Structures are given as C-alpha cells and as structure tokens.
C-alpha cells in the first residue's frame, strides 16, 4: 500500500464511472451501441471491436486496465478505426463523444444515493470534484442529471486540457480550483489509472473501490485503502478522524 494511509483529507477527487456509477451496468450497453455505430453497416465487425477494447459481450464485463475500462475516446478510436475503416479519426472521435454525451448521463446507474452522499461530505467541510476519462460535457451533464451541482466544485474530462489519466493533471487542477495542496486531498477510483494519477500528483490518500472493473488485488498495490464502494467512505473517514 502507498503511504499516507492515516491522513484525513480536506478534499476528495472522485473518478466517475465505476466509482460513483456502476461501471458494467452503465457502460456495457453504451459500448455495444458505440461499436455498432462505428461499424456502420458491418455488424459482423462488432464482436472483434468489442474484444479488442476488453469487453466480453457474453458476460457483459469489462476487463480491468483495458481500453474500455481505463481508456478514453482516443483509445477507442485508435483501436477501432483500422477494424471499421472508412472513418477520419477526428470524425469518429466527434461521433463517439456525441454518443457518450447523449447516453451516459441518462443511463448512469449510481452506486448509492449520490445527493445524500455528497451532502454528507459537504457537512464535513470536504471539497469535492470529479475527474474522468469520459468527455467533459458528459461529466457536467451527469452532475446536473443527478442534482450534484451544489456539492461538486470541479469536474474534468479527458478533453478539459489537463491531460488524461494516469497523468497528474486533473488532480493538480482540482487542487488549484479548490485551493488545496496535493497532500490535503484523497483520490477515489476503481482503476489503477485513477490511483496512479493520485500518486503522481502527490495525493495524501488513494482509495480503491470495487464497483468498477478492478478487483482488490488489482488495486491494493497502489491504494492506501480498498473499500467495497463509496458508501463505505464515511466510515473510513471516521476512522481517519475526518
């Protein structure tokens, strides 16, 4: 486990999908629809397109650390464009991002009552933000869809100009936005790239959750704590004195 396991955070930066929202239930159907759109009339290509990004249609599960589980639109496009063919790269990026902006907010399945959860963090005077490898507009729309705009002070996507995970840019931008130093924040996520972002940024705490694509063994080497879901986070904060 990483260092800093006993420090209480003044700010918490959350991953979105797999952390606040059940990953498989939310993104499995969206990825199938995205592959069908990218394949156009060649539906026979869809199984290969899903396999190459780490999605198994038979189980509707996404592999830990895969393009589907940890990547961004750039990764999807680079994996699919040579299979599907007939696309300009920029056009496929735009088409996929448009699909995600439309579908993700309305189909996201929260892992707990998010307004109650974030209200509890605000009552503790903890500043909160979201960092996702999804498109930024999708993240903003999801925040509004679930009535979280009162609580979440920062959100960033892969296209926000801070770089993509596992780079530290989004975590450092969160710190700048809320006026905290990296050693005063925690990062919570379901994938190694979330925790790597936190470690590279110098976050005090990196907390893994099991509501996404990764198992405990995947997360433990990078995490100070691994919990079942964010619903267990208040109890952990109590243990840390937060």
Automatic annotation (TrEMBL):
It comes from the Bacteria. This is phosphoglycolate phosphatase. GO terms for biological process: DNA repair. Its EC number is 3.1.3.18. Keywords: Hydrolase. Coiled coil: none annotated. It catalyses: 2-phosphoglycolate + H2O = glycolate + phosphate. Pfam families: Hydrolase. Belongs to the HAD-like hydrolase superfamily. CbbY/CbbZ/Gph/YieH family. Pathway: Organic acid metabolism; glycolate biosynthesis; glycolate from 2-phosphoglycolate: step 1/1. It comes from Parvibaculum lavamentivorans (strain DS-1 / DSM 13023 / NCIMB 13966). It is an enzyme of class 3 (hydrolase). GO terms for molecular function: phosphoglycolate phosphatase activity.
